[in-house]
Every structure is written in structure tokens, then in C-alpha cells.
Request: fold
Amino acid sequence: MFCAGRNGRRAVIEYRLRWLPKGNVEVPESIVTRSERLERMRSTRDIESAATIILGITGGAVVDEDDFLVSL
Reply:
């Protein structure tokens, strides 16, 4: 999202929503297990809902982890 700043400067505000395996606070470096992949798939709807709420409040654009634009 772009916001007008002081002296005509612009700032970028970024919100990141990321699934993490249960009990972890860091992104896994290795391949996730099958049960973790299922957990991640089940969480997709919740993450998309949260992104939709944030987009509705703040405006801007939504991109995926590879910086491609996403339509919600």
C-alpha cells in the first residue's frame, strides 16, 4: 500500500501473512512433512480471509510469495 508521507515522500507498508508449522515461530528450512502440508492446506482459507480483511481496511494490492498479483 502506498501512503503519502511528509514532503511528498511515499512509503510502502507491507503486511505478511504466512503459515508456520504448529509450535514453530520460524519458517522451516527443510521440506515440511505430509501432516504439515495438510495442516497448511487447511489453513489456506483462514489466511485468504485475513488477507481480504486487511485489504478491505488498508487498500493496496495483494501479492503471493513470488510477488505475483493475486485477486481475492
Q: What stands out?
A: The two ends are 16 Å apart (CA to CA). Residues 1-5 have pLDDT under 50 and may be disordered. The helical segments are 34-58.
